[in-house]
Write a structure and sequence with these properties.
The complex is a heterodimer of chains A (about 550) and B (about 110). Helix content of chain A is about 40%, strand content about 20%. With about 550 residues, chain A is of the alpha+beta class. Chain A folds into 4 domains: about 5-110, Sulfite Reductase Hemoprotein, domain 2, CATH 3.90.480.20; about 135-290, Sulfite Reductase Hemoprotein, domain 1 (2-Layer Sandwich), CATH 3.30.413; about 305-400, Alpha-Beta Complex (Sulfite Reductase Hemoprotein, domain 2), CATH 3.90.480; about 415-550, Sulfite Reductase Hemoprotein, domain 1 (2-Layer Sandwich). The longest helix of chain A has 22 residues, at about 5-25. Chain B has one domain. Chain B is built from 2 helices and 5 strands. Chain B has a 5-stranded antiparallel sheet with strand order 3-2-1-4-5, covered by helices on one side. Classes of the chains: A alpha+beta (about 550), B alpha+beta (about 110). Chains A and B meet through strand 13, helix 14 and helix 16 of A and helix 2 of B. Chain A: Keywords: 4Fe-4S, Heme, Iron, Iron-sulfur, Metal-binding, Oxidoreductase.
């Protein structure tokens, strides 16, 4: 993985020292809150309902064991013993004291991490496919490009005060696990007819109060033009994006209002002016960055593992785990493992310090020291020998992390909601927990099969409800929480915004409503091989609406 | 609260402690306490205005941030905020916190 060079190290330490001084001046009263607030936000410090919250970037979701252990230590020493992995491959600590933040940032810098640009109207943490470098269907590893974009966008002087925040995601596979079409820029690695590497470029996706699927503005962007083209997009947005209304300031509105063709034309014109300047991505530099992401020293192994197959035959629990949480790897004899942070009845995406340490130990022992954070709020061990899967399962089970539910009904995405977030209008975690409890039975979960439930506690849609197969949006009306259901959303390569199915449900009735939707699917699917989304796309919303509102009468 | 509703409800002054972020309430003797039960309750518009002035002075003195006056109701021997958001601020998340250590969550899980 990428290692800081002298410049990176000096830069991050300077920022820590600068923020230490700023915090000191705030605590002494030298800086007012109005003066200090933009400074703390630039360092990832928010003030939430109960305390300060620190959002830490995990670039393209890649962590080493050492880094994860440090996050565990921070959770234990400065928070309440746990952290929350977010839908943007960040980690949030919810109970941070402002006076401790400089020390925490110092500890992060020691393991080459920081919280810079995790807030504010700048280019945020660049995210990537959590199976990067491992997925069997991968064309190329997206992380070198994500790292190049991270370096380019860090404190970029021209793009530090954009009209609004800006999010970039990169995938190296045709099957999109990084939800690139819901990002301001989505990049998909591809090859042209000559075999040359480049990108399909999407622009203007986003969720929030105005959900939009990104438009494809380039079928093929040569690799060397990555930075010039992204600069062109950002420059058009920075100049033309609205600044009069924060709700209309994201690039998706600009693309929508100017029209896809006119926007593309403006970007191409800017790109034509830029491409021969110094923004070329030189092959030697690309190669230098790529060496940090070289594959680990995989052993030459047979595709089949006798150890694995015996364990499958002998242990139904392991078989169930392997059927959901182990995924095909590009190298024979290896698998990718999803570490579920979705225990039945628990808050999605939370991990205790001890659990983080357990995953760090397992990664160090069995997975080349690598951990990934998924936007689906799970952890991933990207490179595990199939021979080792039974041992990894046992170790995860000991840590309470072997829930065999990846991609199932209890693998729910949920934002922090009103239990933590100052912007939320309703609670989301308790709804996720109650759905998870309702569907706790593993036989039932496996019978239901692939389904994505995503819950947001306000219109800002951090829980990605717009692209949930079943999306739940928590709102407030006359002092009461209520929940709107959307159906048929998808964040993958068939990206679709879900449709609102009808009036919302009270907190008391929302879990029943979800169960009604799922029972309707089970009754109408052509076979267990037709998953929820496929059935919904075939059937439309009518049978679900009828079942929901007939049941509600 | 910039707007005052036609029917006045008793209010307390709440904010976050500057250094720690802890949710705090202003007490009659000018302290900021994490315990809502110790908060000064303004029961008339005039009392609310006076409370606001005293709390504003504490903000100006950099003791607390994010000040608000929030309506409360007396519920038997207890005082609680009327809005769910403020109830959660006052009593903690409504979920069980996933710590390894003994549980720190301040509020019981509510009935759905």
């Amino acid at each position: 993985m990428y290692r800081y060079d002298e410049f990176d190290r000096a830069f991050v330490h300077e920022r820590v020292a600068e923020f230490r001084d700023q915090v000191g001046r705030r605590l002494s009263g030298e800086l007012t809150e109005d003066q200090f607030k933009p400074l703390r936000l630039m360092n990832g410090v928010y003030l939430q309902l109960h305390a300060y919250m620190l959002r830490i970037a995990i670039p393209y979701g890649t962590l080493s064991s050492r880094q994860l252990r440090q996050l565990a230590a921070i959770a234990r020493d400065h928070d309440r013993g746990y952290g929350h992995f977010t839908t943007r491959q960040n980690l949030q600590f919810n109970w941070i004291a402002l006076k401790d933040v400089p020390d925490i940032l110092e500890k992060l810098a020691a393991v080459e991490m920081h919280a810079i640009q995790t807030s504010g109207n700048c280019i945020r943490n660049v995210t990537a496919d959590h199976f990067a470098g491992a997925a069997a269907d991968e064309i190329a590893d997206p992380r070198p490009y994500a790292e190049i974009l991270r370096q380019w966008s860090s404190l970029h002087p021209e793009f530090t005060f954009l009209p609004r925040k800006f999010k970039i995601a990169v995938t190296g596979s045709p099957h999109d696990r990084a939800a690139i079409q819901t990002h301001d820029i989505g990049l998909q690695l591809t090859r042209d007819a000559t075999g040359a590497l480049g990108f399909v470029v999407y622009v203007g996706g986003g969720q929030g109060r105005t959900p939009m699927v990104a438009r494809k503005i380039r079928d093929f962007l040569p690799e060397r033009d990555l930075l010039a083209y992204c600069t062109a997009i950002l420059r058009v947005y920075n100049l033309e994006g609205r600044r009069d209304n924060k709700y209309k300031a994201r690039i998706k509105i600009l693309v929508h209002e100017s029209g896809e063709a006119a926007f593309r034309e403006a970007v191409e014109a800017e790109f034509a002016a830029l491409r021969d300047e110094a923004l070329d991505l030189p092959t030697p530099e690309r190669d230098r960055i790529a060496t940090y992401f070289a594959p680990p020293p995989f052993a030459a192994l047979p595709e089949r593992s006798v150890v694995f197959e015996r364990a499958i035959a002998a242990d139904p629990d392991f078989a169930r785990f392997a059927s959901r949480n182990a995924h095909p790897h590009k190298v024979p004899g290896y698998a990718i493992v999803t570490v579920s942070l979705k225990p039945v009845g628990g808050p999605p995406g939370d991990a205790t310090a001890t659990q983080m340490e357990a995953v760090a130990d397992i990664a160090a022992h069995y997975a080349f020291d690598e951990i990934r954070v998924s936007h689906e709020q799970n952890l991933v061990l990207p490179h595990v020998r199939r021979d080792d899967l039974p041992a990894v399962f046992a170790a995860l089970r000991q840590a309470g992390l072997a829930t065999p539910n990846a991609g199932l009904v209890t693998d729910i995405i949920s934002c922090p909601g009103l239990d933590y977030c100052a912007l939320a209008t309703a609670r989301s975690i308790p709804v996720a927990e109650r759905i998870s409890e309702r569907f706790a039975d593993l036989d039932r979960q496996h019978e239901i099969g692939d389904i994505k439930i995503k819950i947001s506690g306000c219109i800002n849609a951090c829980g990605h409800h717009h692209v949930g197969h079943i999306g739940i949006l928590g709102l407030e009306r006359k002092g009461e929480e209520f929940y709107q259901i959307t159906l048929g959303g998808s964040g993958d390569e068939t990206c679709t915004i879900g449709e609102i199915v009808g009036p919302g449900f009270s907190s008391r009735r929302i879990v029943d409503a979800v169960e009604t939707v799922i029972d309707t699917y089970l009754a109408l699917r052509t076979s267990p091989r037709e998953n929820f989304l496929a059935a919904y796309r075939r059937l439309g919303e009518a049978p679900f609406r009828e079942a929901l509102y007939a049941a509600a009468e | 609260m910039s707007k005052r509703s036609k029917t006045f409800a008793p209010v307390v002054a709440t904010a976050n402690d500057l250094a720690t972020g802890t949710v705090v309430f202003r007490t009659p003797d000018g302290r900021w306490s994490a315990d809502l039960a110790t908060a000064e309750i303004a029961t008339t518009p005039a009392e609310a205005d006076a409370l606001r002035l005293r709390a504003d002075a504490d903000v100006a003195a950099d003791r607390v941030v994010d000040l608000a006056l929030v309506p409360v109701v007396r519920d038997g021997a207890f005082v609680r905020p009327t809005a769910l958001r403020e109830l959660i601020r006052a009593s903690g998340p409504t979920i069980t916190l996933p710590t390894d250590a003994p549980r720190i969550g301040r509020a019981a899980r509510p009935t759905p």
